[in-house]
Amino acid sequence: MTPLALSLHCDQLAPMAYMPPELASRVYNTLADKTLPPPVFNTLLALSELCDPHGGPIPLAEIQRYSRAVMRVELSDRTVKGAVKQLIEQYGVAIGSARGAARHGYFFIRTDEEATAAAAPLLAEIRSLATRCRTLSPKNPYIQHLLGQMEVQL
Fold this sequence. Notes:
Elements: H1 3-10, H2 21-32, H3 38-50, H4 60-71, H5 77-89, E1 95-99, E2 104-108, H6 112-136, H7 141-153
Antiparallel strand pairs: 1-2
Helix pairs in contact: 3-4, 3-5
């Protein structure tokens, strides 16, 4: 698909109909952003097209297959993961990831429960990294300050 065909296609994204209005608007506006890097656009378009109305995660391999088949673009694992990170951190698109053996992949966060579940492994990672920092550099004032804040906030 050409970029013009893809942008026209964005107007017809049926799966967005069951998203909360704020999320659907964020996804649509991000897809319409002309400065969006192509890998980020391709990843978001694939997620938008493949998303499950019941909120099931979309495996990375399925995103890659869609990209190859529909957009004729090869997306590496690293590219998709980087694009998802960018969509969350820079564009504010609520995307969670499921890391379980049976259910794994990416999904749009639509409820508070999904947000809590998506944040849980990240918070565990933060706690683990803080413990490592405390062990490696216990006298570092920045680490002491950061750990003091974390105890209050986490």
